[in-house]
Structures are given as structure tokens and as C-alpha cells.
Design a protein that fits this description.
Chain lengths: 438, 175
């Protein structure tokens, strides 16, 4: 799999004086009801004939990204009073105010051979000013989607004051075949389901891939040997390496440390499952839990100092937090039902989890002290949450009921709004959301 | 580790054998070596069900699997009776070894079910060892909820999926 290096060019396009901002456009994301920001994004200008298709595609993708968050609402082109035919033309703010577009995104695309550049400006219509400065991205025509995602990320970020998540990838398990003979392959996709690429074949079961913090490698569980073992896969060249496991032991549920140099995971031996940490360079490993119960699904805090995990030491699955070096664990889940697969949010403030209660599965979030539990979904079988790079959205697997049951991936805001399926051909499960790409 | 490599050789040899056991997924496209744990002889190799030294007798007459209650790894009295028969057979037919595969139903998270399947398989191994089967002839693995044999989302199917299957292989090859 080849990921072309995208040259990232930031260019100051506007040399004029920066005017004082007076009540700038800003959407503060809260858990309450949000009135979406309205925006207009006229089709980007094609600076040369070769750029016509890309200009149209990229502006449509920017609209799709922004509107897809539920935080922005597009004002359709049919409502436009004035048109934007050239990137540099003066903006008739009154015309955009009249159709109640709070934000205006203006862009232009240039294609030269297989090289593509896109530049854009974001305007705060009601204050009549530019929000931020003009930006330009350069890359290849094949990577046009990334360029569109980058524009959308910049717009999202300028209006919300938070990082975006559109130019990111998700590693997952692609599924096919009936329930009793399901074929599973590792695959990566863009966050929106585009550009699917397979990383393994389906000759053996693969489970729960996890991206490294910078997205260069993937940890996953493989049944190649007939026993669950952990593999480390290099995303660029699909080379893989197995984590050393003694005969008779099963290893699974791996995650990288924040520096990408260590792996925390579960090891089963003699009916007992505990959490371990292994240094990938030295192979040195350390046992972190010492109980006869099942300890699994470890996830590190953003600062790397603590681990949230699940254990059935109380009699059923519950969530616990301990030091990254093991030791005493503190139980944090106390609601009804069973709690598993905890994942620490990138902001550090929440843990996402799978909850089973009264025959239903839920994806939920709670604070690290167990307070403010909020269930975001409910279905026959939801599981395995993963966080968007900015900690605003959760992706997870949903399996349908019955003999013909299949698995798909969904995303939902941490507010519980904007639940939607990731559009993909075929079944999919176990998403792991990678970082925002450089 | 050498042991596993040899086991993989066995698997390749057996991949050509007809697969009749519903627990086998090794046959057919995309399934070759679907799991090393499926490399056993339960797939309908040698022997007839009336020959007490045959794997077929082990699988069908004694029973190659035991079932579990929801979220437990406790052996039921019925399970213990089956395992008594398995132990007796393994003691009599010393050329065989076995991989015990633990499974769970779909009502659980993936990681937990892998650990639960391991617990179940281990409960079977411990019982067989307590009946005299040398521990070195028994290996344990878990497929969690990845390989159900019954596909409905009802207790009638779940009950069949919560299982530990004793999969035979030739000791002479792997020792």
C-alpha cells in the first residue's frame, strides 16, 4: 500500500492589513442542543481547464464533510444571489447575509499534470471579514480527497476552535461470508469510507486492529497459528512481525503506548487472562495485573500514566483504572449491567465503553470517576468504540440479529446525535481511528 | 515453536481431506488453514464409528464437545460424563493428542469472549488431566465468538455455540 507524501504548503495569500475582529463567527460545541452554523460553499474555481472536475469534486467533498458533522448546514447553490466566479473577486457580503449564510467558503483548484493545488478562504459573512487567512494545499490529483478533507478540517477548526478529523484513516476488519464461516481481512479506509485498501487476505481470522499513534503501524490479533497471537503490521509495506508468545499462551486485545514503542495487551494461560506490557524493541515484558479473573481491553490515558481496562473480578465485567505500571485498581463503573472495551478519549476527560444490559448493547461514555454516564446508542449488538482524533465522534461496530446477521460500522457524536452508518461495501467491524494526517 | 511448525505441516496434509464436521472451516476457498486449531482429525478422516479406536468413534459415539451455561466455564454433569469417555479414549489411544477449542455465544464483547473461551477450554483440559491424560498431549485455544456453529440469535443456537471441542491429531507426527 502506498501513501504518497503530501506536500503541505501553507501560503499566506492575503497581504492586506488584518482588521480587528468584532464578534467573530464561533461555534462552541457543547452537549446541549446545537443550532448548526449555516454555510455556503460555491463550487471552487477551476484555474485551468484540467482542474474542472477536481474543483467540483473537492468543493462537494468539503460540503459533505462539514454537513456530515451535523454542526453545519449547507445553504444550497439554488439560493445564491451572487456567484463567485473568481477566487480573488470581492465578496458581496450583503448577498450572503440575505440568504442567511453565516460562513462562506471560497476556493480555487489548479491541476498541472498529476499535481494539484487547492486554496481557500473562509469568510465570516455577518462581520464581513475573513476568518483566518487564505491557505493552500498541494498534492497529487490522485490524493484529491485528502485535499478536500484538509480544507474542511481547516474550516471546522477555525469555526469550532477544535481540531478536525476529516483527513484521517480508520483501520478495520472487512467481513464477508455467512455467520458460521465469516471471512475477515484487515483493511484501511478514509474516515468517510472512501479509499478502502486491504492489508491482509482472509486466510485466517483477524481481529481488533489498532493504529499506532502516528498511524505507521497496526497491531492486531491473528489466528494464523490456530492460537490467537498479536501481529505488528507496517502499513506502508504490509510487512508483519509477531509478538513473541510462549507455547500454550494466547495473546490478544493489544494497543500501542502513546510513544508507539510498547504494547499493552492480554495474555491467557491456564484459563486466566491478565494484562501485560511489552517493549517492542527489547521484547522485555511486564505483568500488570495479578488476579485469577479475566482482565482485558486495556487502554492508556493520553499522558500514558494510567490504564483503563475491564475485569470480571467482581463477578461480571466492569471497568477499572490502574497505574500504567500495574498495582491497585479502582473500579469506575457501577451502573446496571456489564461494561467492557473501555477506551480513553484523546482529550483525557472521558472513557467510551460497551455496555450490556437487559439483552441490549450500548455504546456509552462516562467520566474517569464513573460519573455522568451517558449511553449514546442502543441495539441488538453494538461494541468496540474508537475515538475520532479530536475526541468528538465515536465509531463502533453494530451487528444485526439472526441467522443472516451482518456487521457494519457506525459513527455517533459524543452528544448522542448524528448516528450514521459508514458507507462501505460488505461487512465491517472493529474500527480503530487513526490520527489526523500530517 | 517447532511444535507449531510441525502442526502446520499436519494442517496442510489434512487440508485435502474431506471436511464433514460442522466445526471445521478449513476446507474450501479462503479457508485453507483458516485456523491451525482446526487441523485435527475430527474432520472425518480414518475409521468408522463402530471402531472404538477411530477418531470417528471419539467424535460421534463419545462426543467431541461439551456445552456450557451462559458466561460460565463450569462443567455440567453431562459434560463430565463425555469428558470421562474422552479421557478413557485418549488413554487407550496414546498416539493421539488434542487441541481443545473454547467458544462463546455472540452475546458478549469480542475480547471478553476470547478469554471466556480460553477458560472453558482450560476447564476441559484440567478435567482430562485429572483423569490421567498427560498434560503434554493437550493444548488449549479459544475462538471466542468468531466461529458459531448455529447461527440464529436465540438460546437454542447460543446453547450449541457455548462449547469446548476436543480436536484430535496424530501425536506421532507432532511429537
Amino acid at each position: 500500500m502506498m501513501m504518497r507524501l503530501l506536500t503541505f504548503v501553507m501560503a499566506l495569500l492575503l497581504a492586506g492589513p488584518v482588521l480587528a475582529q468584532n464578534g467573530p463567527l464561533r461555534l462552541t460545541i457543547t452537549d446541549g442542543v446545537i443550532e448548526p452554523i449555516t454555510f455556503a460553499a460555491p463550487s471552487f474555481e477551476a484555474e485551468n481547464p484540467a482542474a474542472l472536475q477536481a474543483a467540483s469534486d473537492i468543493s462537494r467533498l468539503v460540503v459533505q464533510d462539514l454537513a456530515g458533522t451535523g454542526l453545519f448546514r449547507e445553504v444550497p447553490a439554488t439560493a445564491f444571489i451572487s456567484q463567485i466566479s473568481a477566487f480573488a473577486q470581492p465578496i458581496a457580503f450583503a448577498d450572503w447575509r440575505a440568504i442567511n449564510a453565516q460562513a462562506l467558503v471560497v476556493g480555487a483548484v489548479n491541476v498541472n499534470g498529476d499535481q494539484l493545488t487547492v486554496k481557500f478562504r473562509l469568510y465570516d459573512v455577518f462581520s464581513g471579514q475573513e476568518l483566518g487567512q487564505g491557505l493552500q494545499f498541494a498534492g497529487t490529483t490522485a490524493g484529491w480527497r485528502r485535499m478536500g478533507h484538509k480544507v474542511a478540517d481547516a474550516v471546522y477548526s477555525r469555526i469550532t476552535g477544535e481540531g478536525g478529523y476529516f483527513d484521517s484513516r480508520v483501520v478495520f476488519v472487512s467481513e464477508s461470508g455467512p455467520k458460521d464461516n465469516r471471512q475477515k481481512r484487515l483493511a484501511v479506509m478514509d474516515f468517510d469510507g472512501a479509499n478502502v485498501q486491504f492489508l491482509t487476505d482472509s486466510s485466517s481470522i483477524v481481529l481488533a486492529p489498532r493504529f499506532s499513534p502516528n498511524g505507521d503501524r497496526v497491531l492486531y490479533t491473528s489466528f494464523e497459528s490456530g492460537f490467537p497471537r498479536i501481529n505488528v503490521l507496517n502499513v506502508a509495506n504490509v510487512g508483519r512481525q509477531q509478538l513473541q508468545t510462549a507455547p500454550g499462551e494466547m495473546a490478544f486485545s493489544p494497543r500501542f503506548s502513546r510513544d508507539g514503542r510498547q504494547v499493552i495487551y492480554s495474555l491467557s494461560n491456564g484459563g486466566n487472562t491478565d494484562i501485560y506490557r511489552t517493549d517492542l524493541a527489547t521484547g522485555q515484558h511486564m505483568r500488570l495485573t495479578q488476579t485469577p479473573s479475566i482482565e482485558t481491553a486495556p487502554s492508556l490515558s493520553p499522558d500514558g500514566s494510567q490504564i483503563v481496562f475491564e475485569s470480571d473480578r467482581s463477578g461480571n465485567q466492569q471497568l477499572y483504572v490502574m497505574s500504567a505500571n500495574g498495582g491497585e485498581a479502582r473500579r469506575i463503573s457501577f451502573g446496571e449491567g456489564r461494561y467492557g472495551t473501555p477506551v480513553w478519549s484523546p482529550r483525557g476527560d472521558l472513557v467510551a465503553f460497551t455496555k450490556q444490559n437487559a439483552g441490549r448493547f450500548h455504546i456509552g461514555v462516562m467520566r474517569l470517576d464513573g460519573s455522568e454516564e451517558r449511553l449514546l446508542t442502543s441495539s441488538f449488538l453494538d461494541e468496540g468504540p474508537t475515538w475520532s482524533p479530536n475526541g468528538r465522534v465515536i465509531m463502533f461496530s453494530r451487528e444485526t440479529q439472526g441467522a443472516g446477521g451482518t456487521s457494519s460500522m457506525y459513527s455517533v457524536d459524543i452528544s448522542g446525535r448524528n448516528l450514521k452508518a459508514v458507507p462501505l461495501q460488505g461487512g465491517a467491524s472493529d474500527p480503530s481511528w487513526g490520527p489526523l494526517q500530517p | 515453536m517447532t511444535l507449531f511448525k510441525k502442526a502446520a505441516v499436519v494442517l496442510l496434509m489434512l487440508a485435502t481431506a474431506a471436511c464433514t464436521n460442522p466445526d471445521r472451516f478449513g476446507g474450501g476457498a479462503g479457508g485453507a488453514g483458516g485456523a491451525g486449531g482446526d487441523a485435527g482429525l475430527n474432520g472425518g478422516l480414518a475409521g468408522s464409528a463402530s471402531d472404538p479406536t477411530s477418531p470417528l468413534f471419539f467424535n460421534q459415539t463419545i462426543g467431541d464437545r461439551v456445552l456450557f451455561m451462559v458466561d460460565t466455564s463450569t462443567l455440567t454433569p453431562t459434560g463430565q460424563t463425555i469428558l470421562d469417555g474422552q479421557a478413557q479414549w485418549l488413554l487407550t489411544n496414546a498416539d493421539y493428542r488434542a487441541v481443545i477449542e473454547g467458544h462463546a455465544d455472540e452475546q458478549g464483547t469480542r475480547e471478553y469472549n476470547l478469554a471466556l473461551g480460553q477458560r472453558r477450554a482450560n476447564a476441559v483440559r484440567e478435567y482430562l488431566v485429572s483423569r490421567g491424560v498427560p498434560v503434554g498431549r493437550l493444548q488449549v485455544t479459544s475462538f471466542g465468538k468468531e466461529r458459531p456453529i448455529a447461527v440464529c440469535s436465540e438460546e437454542s443456537c447460543y446453547a450449541q455455540n457455548r462449547r469446548a471441542v476436543t480436536v484430535l491429531s496424530f501425536s506421532a507426527i507432532t511429537s
